[in-house]
């Protein structure tokens, strides 16, 4: 199915290819009704999940070397205390932009 099919209706193509948008008001309504799994599915799984390496010691995002298959924390200078975590790609970009402005967001990891 082509991405833009001008012969048929425009709305079904948008709904089929991209899904429905979940705005801030819809998100707030779902939070009020305690629909946590629906929020998790719409804001992470359906959008842009990304796997990152997080240092358990300092809480910063690390790096993964695909060639050596090892993780590395640039702050701690080792890769011993690294954990895998899934978060939206937009969240990862936000963390990196904050770090570029010298604001360091740290993640506290717990066993779950």
From TrEMBL:
<dbReference type="GO" id="GO:0032549">
    <property type="term" value="F:ribonucleoside binding"/>
</dbReference>
<protein>
    <recommendedName>
        <fullName>DNA-directed RNA polymerase</fullName>
        <ecNumber>2.7.7.6</ecNumber>
    </recommendedName>
</protein>
<keyword id="KW-0548">Nucleotidyltransferase</keyword>
<dbReference type="InterPro" id="IPR007641">
    <property type="entry name" value="RNA_pol_Rpb2_7"/>
</dbReference>
<keyword id="KW-0804">Transcription</keyword>
<keyword id="KW-0808">Transferase</keyword>
<dbReference type="Pfam" id="PF04560">
    <property type="entry name" value="RNA_pol_Rpb2_7"/>
</dbReference>
<dbReference type="GO" id="GO:0000428">
    <property type="term" value="C:DNA-directed RNA polymerase complex"/>
</dbReference>
<keyword id="KW-0240">DNA-directed RNA polymerase</keyword>
<feature type="domain" description="RNA polymerase Rpb2">
    <location>
        <begin position="19"/>
        <end position="108"/>
    </location>
</feature>
<comment type="similarity">
    <text>Belongs to the RNA polymerase beta chain family.</text>
</comment>
<dbReference type="GO" id="GO:0003899">
    <property type="term" value="F:DNA-directed RNA polymerase activity"/>
</dbReference>
<dbReference type="GO" id="GO:0003677">
    <property type="term" value="F:DNA binding"/>
</dbReference>
<dbReference type="GO" id="GO:0006351">
    <property type="term" value="P:DNA-templated transcription"/>
</dbReference>
<dbReference type="InterPro" id="IPR015712">
    <property type="entry name" value="DNA-dir_RNA_pol_su2"/>
</dbReference>
């Amino acid at each position: 199915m082509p991405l833009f099919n001008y012969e048929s209706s425009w709305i079904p193509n948008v709904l089929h290819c991209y899904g429905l948008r979940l705005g801030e008001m819809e998100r707030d309504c779902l939070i009020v009704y305690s629909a946590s799994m629906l929020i998790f599915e719409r804001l992470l799984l359906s959008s842009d999940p990304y796997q990152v390496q997080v240092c358990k010691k300092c809480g910063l995002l690390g790096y993964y070397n695909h060639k050596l298959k090892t993780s590395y924390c640039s702050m701690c200078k080792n890769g011993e205390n690294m954990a895998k975590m899934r978060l939206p790609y937009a969240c990862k970009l936000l963390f990196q932009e904050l770090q570029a402005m010298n604001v360091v967001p740290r993640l506290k990891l717990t066993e779950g």
